[in-house]
Structures are given as structure tokens and as C-alpha cells.
Fold this protein.
Amino acid sequence: MADASASLAQADLVVSALPLTPATDRMVSTQIVSQLQGAVFMNVGRGPTVDAQAIRAGLEGGNLKKAVLDVHEVEPLPHSDWRWTDPRVFVTPHISGPVTQKDVYEAMCTSAKELGEGLLPSLRVDPKRGY
């Protein structure tokens, strides 16, 4: 992120798909948002990677034009939260993407094959990495 300043200043759209790790906790901060110049911000990663008050300040200060938020630091998002009523914020229903039975079946078959070959599944979660 230290090298992102020039890119952030030119960005029309910033999409965060960060996993939650100690290194990414509140990574999208006032320091990052203040470098934007009217961008749209979208978070489809983990809620706590984004400082919600930095998003609010960015919207109020013009650094952000809109925010599309699929995840939040607290879920479900309380009914009284400002994000529900701010017309510049789109709260989506925390669906990361379409998942079909075929997708699940193929992932399970791949994992079963790898286990049968004595390998750890490539689709496994690594708790040390946080994703």
C-alpha cells in the first residue's frame, strides 16, 4: 500500500477484496481514503479491513463519490447505522458471488481427489494466513 499513492489518486474505482489478517485489519484507513479523488469504493473482502469512519469522512470530504459495501465490521449491520440511510452508500446482501450446486460439487471432487493422492486440498483455509 505504501507504493499505491499515485494509483489511488488516479483511481475511479477501488475494490477491496482483502482477507482479514493482522496486517490488513483497518488497512483501508483515512490515510488511504484521503488519497482518492472522487472514486467509488467497493468492499467485497472482510468488513474489519475497512475503517467505516474513514469511508464516511471520504464521502463527506469528496474523496469518495459512492461506496458499495457487501461486508461490515459488525454483521448484521445495525438498523441504526448511518450506512443504511446515506444515499451515497449501497449496502448489498453479503453474497460474494453466485454459488451453484455444480460449483460446490466440483470443489468437493477436487478436494477429495487431492486427499486421495495424499495431498492437502488446494482449496483449504490456512488459519495462519487468515484465509
User: Anything to note?
Assistant: Strands lie at 13-16, 39-43, 64-69, 89-91. The first helix runs from residue 5 to 10.
